[in-house]
Amino acid sequence: MTFPPMKVDKVVLAYSGGLDTSVILAWLQDVYDCEVVTFTADLGQGEEVEPARAKARARGVEEIFIDDLREEFVRDYVYPMFRANAIYEGEYLLGTSIARPLIAKRLVEIAHETGADAISHGATGKGNDQVRFELGAYALDPDIKVIAPWREWDLTSRERLLAYAADKGIPIEQKRGTKSPYSMDANLLHISFEGGPLEDPWTEPASEMWRWSVSPELAPAEGAYVDLTYEKGDIVAIDGREMSPARVLAELNRIGGEHGIGRLDIVENRYVGIKSRGAYETPGGTIMLRAHRAIESITLDRGSAHLKDDLMPRYAELIYNGYWFSPERELLQGLIDASQEFVNGVVRLKVYKGNVTTVGRKSSDSLFDERIATFEEDDGVYDQADAEGFVKLNALRLRTIAKRRLRS
Predict the structure, then answer these.
(1) Do residues 99 and 128 touch, judged by C-beta distance below 8 A?
(2) Number of compact structural domains in the chain
(3) Is the pLDDT of residue 9 over 50?
(4) What is the dihedral of CA 149, 155, 157, 159, to 10 degrees?
(5) What is the pLDDT of residue 3?
């Protein structure tokens, strides 16, 4: 490319310091001849983010942002999503999807703070992340410019990336041992694996691929119990110890990982129309979903609970497709949050060899009435004879249809 497709004076780059974004940094300076600001987010991915500062500085970057966003991530994104019991296509807990709007938000904020007129990301033209980053950015700043190098350049293979890096004097770390064949993404909610051997959906993931959890076969021979305290649909304490949202999720990841919780192997439908096979580890999130449904089972009335279940697939799809900042997601969130007013109490779970089982739940706001539910004498609280009319009224149309069928 001999000239950039648009004029840009200053761009904020979502920067990890790895090969792709290091090449993108040099490429932006070379092709766009612009000033680059780097932004590195700590979302609890478990890797040191500070080295990105030195790498960016070595490329002449003067404005470098490294932000610890773990609390904001869990409090303002993960927790609201789990109030909805959101799950995509029946299995995926949206670990990558829910992190993208926060990154997009900070990219736009930093662009405003630094006077930049564009943002840039390292997502490819085949994936969902390009959509999530850019829909989020445009929703917050409709005039922001977006540079997506993977849709513009001809560096379409690792060999070309390495050659470009060598030509520009970008140091490439040579790690000892065998390089992971997978494309991985991690944050406090999950770690994902794609590519490599997983591109064959018949190939079982290798045991050494998994990072956060032990194999259920190797998990402790005895299960463990954990009590989760809820206030308005959010976990505020584990085993009676109050914790911040990020600390809650980190601790549940530890507990779940020790007991082989949260492994998933799926083929999902990307928004861009491609079927993609991915493997995920979401130990804490798996526990959270089971627990939240348990506390709702005694604190939500049937109508509210069933309405939430009806709306959940649409809500999950909005997050998966990148519409976190859309009016429809915000409308749904308002309804969901309103439903959580009395979702308070304690859930007791047992974790054992890859399984999470609810073994107890209690709440001062419980709608469960032992006097009505009992199989023993209920002291006249419920008159069973009343059920006869209820059944006959509900059977009326079925009986009418049956009579017509018999006539014909």
Answers:
(1) no
(2) 2
(3) yes
(4) -130
(5) 61
Clarify whether residues 144 and 23 are in a common domain: yes
d(CA 232, CA 203): 43
Which one of the listed residues 70, 83, 100, 132 is annotated catalytic?
100
Share above pLDDT 90 across residues of the chain, in percent, rounded to a whole number: 84
Answer yes or no: is 395 within a domain: no
Answer yes or no: do 129 and 267 share one domain.
Answer: no
* Residue 131 pLDDT > 70: yes
Asked if 244 is an active-site residue, the reply is no
Q: In CATH, what number is assigned to the domain containing residue 295?
A: 3.90.1260.10
Is 183 marked active-site?
Answer: yes
| Residue range(s) defining the domain that contains residue 255 | 183-300+339-362
Catalytic residue among 30, 59, 76, 183: 183
pLDDT > 70: what percent of the chain? 97
Please give the Cα distance from 257 to 94 (Å, whole number): 18
- Chain-wide mean pLDDT for the chain? 94
Question: Which member of 16, 20, 234, 363 is catalytic?
Answer: 20
Place of tokens 């915000």: 330
Quick: pLDDT tens for 67-115.
999 999 999 999 999 999 999 999 999 999 999 999 999 999 999 999 9
Q: What is residue 225's three-state secondary structure?
A: strand
Distance CA 134, CA 121 (A): 9
From the list 42, 129, 185, 234, the catalytic residue is 129
SS3 338: helix
Residue 15 lies in a domain: yes
- pLDDT band of 354, cuts 50, 70, 90: very high
- Where a domain ends, among 107, 137, 167? 167
Question: What is this structure's pTM?
Answer: 0.93
